[in-house]
TrEMBL record:
Annotated protein name in UniProt: F-boxlrr-repeat protein
Domain F-box residues, every copy: 16-57
Gene3D superfamilies: 1.20.1280.50, Ribonuclease Inhibitor
One MF term in the entry's GO annotations: SCF ubiquitin ligase complex binding
InterPro entries assigned: F-box-like_dom_sf, F-box_dom, LRR_dom_sf
Gene Ontology biological process terms in this record: defense response to Gram-negative bacterium
Source organism (scientific name): Nicotiana attenuata
Amino acid sequence: MEEGDSAVKRWEDLDNDILVKILQSFDLFELTSGLAQVCSSWRLACSDQLLWKTLDLSVLKSNFIKIPLEPYVYVDCQSDKTLTRLLRIALNLSRGNILTLIFHYNLYVSDNQLTYTAERCPRLKRLVMPAWNRIKKTGICRAIRIWEDLESLTMPSIANPPYVMEEIARNCKKFAELKIMGPCDILFASTLVAFLPNLKVLSVRCTMLSKGALVIILEGLKKLEVLNISHCLITEVPPSSPRKVLTKLDESILEKASRLRKFLTCMSDSCIMCQRTRNDEGLMRWYKYEEDLWKVDEVRSLAI
């Protein structure tokens, strides 16, 4: 082809919509690898809101060791730097358009990283963050105050849930869905009733759940529509007797749950997930199982 032929086109002249379509097939690491530095048109495409509705960091894990004192994990410095760099690039490209943010259960975010993230995605509607070991009360409360549009949260079981639920109740008026990845006791259930009476969807699958907590949830959350207790180790402590694990739900529980649109349960001896919950004594060790098993939920809106 002769020099100066008008048929010759440059990559930067590629139609923006076509380029965005191509970039949608790229993963997070590819999108943040420097494509936006090629030219101004590529940076514009890399910042398109279609690419940044969801920031899925579930492919990234911390390099850590367990320690006997709080926060019970020590994260390698290089691992922290990798996460910080990825957050900086991704959040700059996203231009505040992220609506869903997903962290791996072994990705231990620090207070500073969480604050940096919250300030740069203020429109967040869904947060999946199963590990809070390195996040202090002030850090999560500061983030929740920024996320006024938050509707859905996947979180770990924590020893002192009232401060989180009170902050959500005060700031997140559209909040409707909660998933707890860990034991749900009477304190946690009572906290939900006290601060989140309008909760519509709750999942406490694959964990230890006391019968008392289940009763509080069913009686106290009047607007609850969907409750998932699939594969739970449901326990009861009769007066002057040791704790026992229920093999089925009694009629009083089923009657209380009959008002729900969906009541999802599974307590089968032949169910692999029920067996795993029992073997792990209600504290699922997700690292032992299939890579993405922790993302599963019988409630479609809470699955990843």
